[in-house]
Amino acid sequence: MYLVTNNLEPSTEEFKTLYKKQWSVEGYHKSPKQNVSLAKSLARTVTTQSNHLFASLVAYIKLEKLKFTQKLNHFALKAKIYLAAIKAAWNEIGKIKREVSA
């Protein structure tokens, strides 16, 4: 691991402090990319790119709020949301099948 610093001989505690700061920045950049699809925009015009960026940032803020109320990280929240969506879709499929067979 390489950390950039002007301190040529950091103590163990200073190294740990630097690493924690660096990791918090990494987490901030990783979550919007992976959890709110910030990097997955297929938009080509300025307007659609701006809309995608805005929607991604709103989703990130909502995840941040949920993180504190649910006491879960962004990745666990995303998994929980996907599971709920899959259950709802499965229930809807069952409902449609019952209507068709009736």
Notes on the protein architecture:
- This protein is an all-alpha fold and 102 residues long.
- It has one domain.
- Helix content is 75%, strand content 0%.
- It is built from 3 helices and no strands.
- It has helices at 12-35, 46-70, 74-101.
- The model has no long low-confidence stretch (mean pLDDT 86).
How do the helices and strands follow one another from N- to C-terminus?
HHH
Shape: elongated
What level of helicity do the residues show?
A: over 70%
Secondary structural class = mainly alpha
The proportion of residues in beta strands is under 5%
User: What integer value in Å does the Rg equal?
Assistant: 21 Å
Largest sheet features: none
Could you tell me the mean pLDDT? 86
- End-to-end separation in angstroms reads 64 Å
Task: Indicate the low-confidence ranges by residue numbers.
Answer: none
Number of helices: 3
Q: What is the β-strand count?
A: 0
Count of discrete domains: 1
How are the SSEs ordered, and which strands pair?
Elements: H1 12-35, H2 46-70, H3 74-101
What's a quick, concise take on this entry?
Helices cover 75% and strands 0% of the residues. The chain has 102 residues and is mostly helical.
